[in-house]
Design goal:
alpha/beta, 15 helices, two-stranded antiparallel sheet, 8 strands, six-stranded parallel beta sheet, about 10% strand
């Protein structure tokens, strides 16, 4: 029997991949998020049957772990079960979000007003464009320059929307993405409206997501402090295997046991990497009736190269030069099998953890590093190895001097930055 060709099997017809790497692409198997989805189901039931607005659901985690997908899944469940539409706002950098929220809320009010009384909204109509007003979908318009919205105006607009939804015997899901980019005053404005609405039986479920920066004390708003918070990250081994094996089995080309375990180790449980490596393994096994170890070893090379060209390179390019040595030291510690903490990194750089604390916090807010207590980890599996190689390529023999200079620069930045100001902003 001829050995399978794992360089793409170009002679065989390819079939649709059951893996979905890419932004906001819902995976075929959404593993490891059962607790959040159970809470979402309860929130939807509370709003629809108990006629009470539940506490907001807030999801925190680094990029690539499925926060935006979860927002869509929560809204989709309300749409599928009760026909509720979704009102979605994505917060942009240095841009207020309440004007877009007010505009789109007014548009959704018109949708409810124009619908026959008691009409069930259909979740299959997925997106409402600027010129199309449908039902059971998402209000999403092109972002343009909008006038600021006064607190009373926002309250009036959202009140009208809630009343229109209730009159239609319906409700809606408000989803807010990239919440770490909000300004505290504007977030407080929305919180004040929602807090008043909590006692008025508004038919609303609120769900939001963002990076760790949304927990920043300088952005804290008491209403959202009482929300239902969920910190998410990489999947454990069992969840990773489920996310890898489920789609392949459903698509009729199952993963061999040893192949699944090997691929799981490659991904590190990182949800985006699971979809990317799974996709490449699917392509490498074209023409076979199963995905074997040779196919996933081929995928390790092609998917790894794609991560380096895209995600790793982008994260590295966005890191200021004075911060790169911090990452390089952390990567060296990972390679040596040592526990990485801010104190250990600072000691390697010849300074103190206090002096580098703003840099550390900046990496966490940006989603490059994650923290579990004092322990730091790279948010994306494989990033540490990339940082090591890239640092040597760029600095080579000058690495030690760069370490000293970087520490001095970071110390100077901390010394002259006003208290409470984010590093590097």
């Amino acid at each position: 029997m001829a050995e399978p060709n794992h360089e793409g099997n170009q002679g065989a017809a390819q079939t649709s991949s059951p893996y979905r790497p890419g932004f906001n692409q819902s995976p075929m198997v959404l593993a490891g998020r059962d607790d959040i989805l159970a809470a979402a189901d309860e929130a939807i039931v509370t709003a629809t049957l108990d006629h009470r607005m539940p506490p907001p659901l807030l999801v925190v985690g680094p990029r690539g772990v499925g926060k935006t997908v979860l927002l869509g899944e929560i809204a989709g469940r309300a749409g599928t079960t009760y026909g509720w539409p979704r009102l979605h706002v994505e917060v942009g950098p240095n841009q207020p979000f309440t004007p877009a929220l007010a505009r789109d809320a007014a548009a959704l009010t018109s949708v409810f007003a124009d619908a026959p009384s008691g009409r069930r909204f259909r979740a299959s109509e997925a997106v409402l464009r600027a010129q199309v007003a449908g039902v059971g979908g998402e209000i999403k318009f092109a972002r343009d320059q909008l006038d600021p919205v006064a607190p009373l105006e926002l309250r009036t607009i959202l009140t009208k929307l809630a009343e229109a939804a209730a009159n239609s015997q319906s409700g809606f899901v408000l989803t807010l993405d990239e919440l770490q980019l909000t300004e505290r005053d504007e977030l407080s404005q929305l919180a004040a409206v929602l807090q008043l609405a909590a006692g008025e039986e508004w038919p609303i479920v609120v769900a939001g997501a963002g990076l760790a920066g949304m927990r920043d004390p300088s952005r804290a708003v008491s209403y959202f402090e009482r929300a239902d918070w969920y910190d998410i990250g990489t999947l454990n081994e069992a969840e990773t295997l489920l996310a890898l094996k489920g789609p392949a089995a459903s698509a009729g080309r199952p993963l061999d046991g040893d192949a699944a375990e090997y691929l799981g180790r490659c991904t590190g449980g990182y949800p985006y990497a699971i979809q990317l490596y799974g996709h490449h393994a699917w392509r490498a096994s074209t023409g076979q009736d199963h995905i074997d170890l040779a196919a996933v070893q081929s995928a390790e090379n092609t998917a790894g190269a794609q991560l380096e060209r895209g995600l790793y390179a982008s994260r590295w390019a966005q890191t200021p030069e004075r911060e790169r040595r911090y990452l390089a030291v952390a990567a060296d510690l990972v390679a040596a099998g040592k526990v990485v903490t801010g104190g250990v990194v600072a000691a390697e750089m010849g300074t103190t953890a206090q002096r580098l604390s703003t840099a550390r916090d900046r990496f966490i807010r940006r989603g490059t590093l994650t923290s579990e207590g004092e322990v730091l980890r790279f948010a994306v599996p494989g990033m540490a190895s990339y940082v090591q190689r890239q640092f040597q390529v760029e600095y080579g023999a000058d690495a030690a001097a760069v370490t000293r200079t970087a520490a001095q620069n970071l110390n100077a930045v901390k010394a002259r930055r006003p208290r409470g100001h984010d590093f590097g902003r």
